[in-house]
Amino acid sequence: MLVSAGERRLSRLGFDLHDGALQHVATLGADVHRVRTELPAHLKPTLDSLAEGVSELDRVLRELAHSLEPASLLRRPLAGVVEAEAASLRERTGIDVRTRVLGDFSAMTASQKIAVIRVVQEACANVREHSGAASVEIVLTASRSCVDLQITDDGDGFEVARTLQDAAQRGRLGLVGGSERVRLLGGTFDVRSRVGGPTTVSVIVPRWQPLAAVGESSLQLAY
Length: 223
Description:
It contains 8 helices and 5 strands, in the order H-H-H-H-E-H-E-E-H-H-E-E-H. By secondary structure, it is of the alpha+beta class. The two termini are about 35 Å apart.
C-alpha cells in the first residue's frame, strides 16, 4: 500500500509536468520560432542554438513525464522497459551500455515491477549525471525464488554512506527512495562503491506468494 501511494504521487507529478511545464516549454518554443522569423539573417544562427536547447528540454521533460506514469510502464514487458532505459542512456551519453535479461518476469506484481524500474531509472540518471563512466552493465535475472538486478559502472565511484546521507539531507531521495520501495516489498537493496570505482547497485526482490499458499506450504513442511 505504501509503494502504491508513492507511485500515485509520482503519477500526479507526471501529469503536472505534462499539463504545466511542458505547456510552458511549448509556448517558449513557439515564441523562439516567431522571433527567429522576424530577425535579420545574420542573427538567426544565435536563435538556432536556443531553439535546439528548447527542443531538447521538451524531449527530456516528455521522457520524464512518460517514465513517471506507472500505467504506461506496466503495459510494457519489464525486459523491454529495461532495454529502453539502457538505449536512452547510450544515445544521450555515448556510454557503452550492455544489458542481459534472463528469465520469466510474468509472476511479478505491479509494485515489484515498478520498484525495479525506478531503481534502473535512478541508477541510469546517476551514471549520466555524476559517474564519468565509459561502460555500464545491467543484468536482470528471474529465478524461482527472486528477481535479481545488478547495475555496474566503471565510473569515478564515491563514498557510499556519506553520499547517500548528503543526498537525503538535500532532499534528493533517488536511490534512497528506491531502497525504501524495495525494502517495503521484502527485498534487499545495496550500493557498493569506492572512490575510483567501480559502483554496483544490487536489488533482490523475492517472488510474491499469496498468504494462503504460504500457509499450505508450511502445513506440508510440518507434516
